[in-house]
Amino acid sequence: MIRALALAGCLLALRLAAQPMAVGEAQLHPKRGIARQVQVPHDAVYQRAKRYRGRPLAPLLRRAGIGAEAGQEAWDLVFICSDAYTVRMPLGLALAHEGHLVWKDLDAPAGRRWTPLRPGGSDSELGSWYVVWADAPAGDARFKWPYALERIRLEPRP
Prior knowledge:
Elements: E1 12-16, E2 25-28, E3 36-43, E4 48-56, H1 57-63, E5 75-81, E6 86-90, H2 91-96, E7 99-105, E8 130-133, E9 149-156
């Protein structure tokens, strides 16, 4: 079950499942439901075509109560990663494109969850969750590709 909770100041925070839930956050279970194979023609992190197992991002956000906001151009998704990396992306852009929350690299070497980012690297670098875009034009900096994702927040644009 996905629960959403609107906070004072129009802030909604989603914490991905398998993490402790804090007060004022909704818990998101992306692995529940039907997973699909995602084809990404140009992955911005790996700089090549990739295949993943995951779920479309927009329906997950909508089921958690994100996306019905009037004036979507006034809102940002804020992706927060385990290493404290935080990046913002316009909500309207995210909902209008084919974003996916993925948890498995189908091109990874046998016995690994992810292809290491550098030779000899660990497959744990990407963490549990990675956001990819199946229809993002190569090199388009408007699209964010956060990995080791822990939380997604909705905030008013600065």
